[in-house]
Amino acid sequence: MYHQDQARPAPLPAEAYFSDEFFELERRTVFARHWHCLGPVGELARVGGYLAREVMGIPIVVRNEDGRLCAFRNVCPHRQSVLVRDGSGHADKLRCQYHGWEFDGEGQLSHLPEGSSFRGFKARTACLDRLKVDTLFGLVFVNFDLDATSLPDGLGQLAVDLVPKLDRYSYHWMNSTEHDCNWKVPVENSIEGYHSAAVHAKTFGPLVDEKLIHHELGPRHAYYRSEGRYQVSPRSQVHDALVRTFLSAGATPEPQHIQAGIFPNYMIDFSYFTFLFTVIEPIAPRRTRFTWYGFLPGPTPTTRLGRLARDVYSRRFFGGGLKILAEDIAVWPYIQRGLEASQRRSVLGRSEERVYHFQKFIADQTAVDLDRKSGNQP
Ligand code: FES
Ligand SMILES: [Fe+2]
Fold first, then answer.
1. DSSP of 133-147, one letter per residue?
2. 208, pLDDT greater than 70
């Protein structure tokens, strides 16, 4: 059942989806204390492993220093070069690619080549800008705010509730693509099922009956649970049953389809034996990275048959997911074009109440002047 009893005008104006000014405002407000997901622990699991990439346009690097993860702005205090190039790998030291300055796990300068040339320079003042770093269900997160609350707290109560469930899964697969649309377009697309009958007519099918749907709207999340299953063919049911038998000892299918939007830009999705973690990263006002991290229950099986079943299931489920996602992706540029040409405020129906809740969150965080930007009412 829905909480809302009538349609409402959307809290955000259309320019929130393309204006440079609003994008900057979001960076300073919505994302200022945000835990940014960088991806799987991967190389970082061993000492000396590192991962370097951009977050909100800022190069950052995370390293495993003697078993402890450390994160820094990936910029050298000497002449501001990016220290290490984007990617992951292994290196004995964090060393700048330009003149070879080296830094320790605290970000302090630990080696200054041709030090005699720097007489009068206080080496201890040359330190890297630190970030907070943490891991959750095998993924690495960083926060630019050193006083930020812990990662589960930052992700909201819902994430705390789901952590024990997530711990039963292990990371298996990822898919990352970039798109010409504002980041809120895929977020909003992911937190409503109203479009399903039109966009996913040949795959997902229409939304299940409202009586089977439960919405929970929290301060930082919008939670969806569905008692019913979407259309599944008899053939796929047999396939599922076979795979369930071999997938993971003791694994049980999720009885419900659970989808949780964790604001501003994460989505947790449980269905059957699969858990998907979605990260929707703003790159520019009209450019967005959409990443899926796929998880399967339990550790990787030790038997060949178990691993085969896991791979078959993974290909079937994640492949099916990508097919559905492709239908959404095909619409995003048109939503973006429409928003940029719009002269009126959108309207949101009852079943789109999670979108309303998300937009209200963004409007509150940015303290956008809704009256000034209200435009025409629908
Ligand atoms: S810019 Fe990094 S060592 Fe010179
Ligand atoms: Fe969709």
1. EEEETTEEEEES-TT
2. yes
Ligand 1 atom, smallest distance to 100 CA: 3
First and final C-alpha spacing in the chain: 25
Domains of the chain: 8-30+152-366 (3.90.380.10), 36-143 (2.102.10.10)
Neighbours of ion ligand 2 (CB under 5 A): 328
**pLDDT interval class at 378 (50, 70, 90):** very low
Q: Is 99 in the pocket of ligand 1 (CB under 6 A)?
A: yes
Q: ipTM strictly over 0.90?
A: yes
**Residue with the nearest Cα to atom 1 of ligand 1?**
79
Q: Which of 297, 340, 287 is nearest to 54 (CA)?
A: 287
Confidence (pLDDT) at 150? 80
CA–centroid distance, residue 354 to ligand 2 (Å): 14
Question: Is ligand 1 within 6 A of the CB of residue 101?
Answer: yes
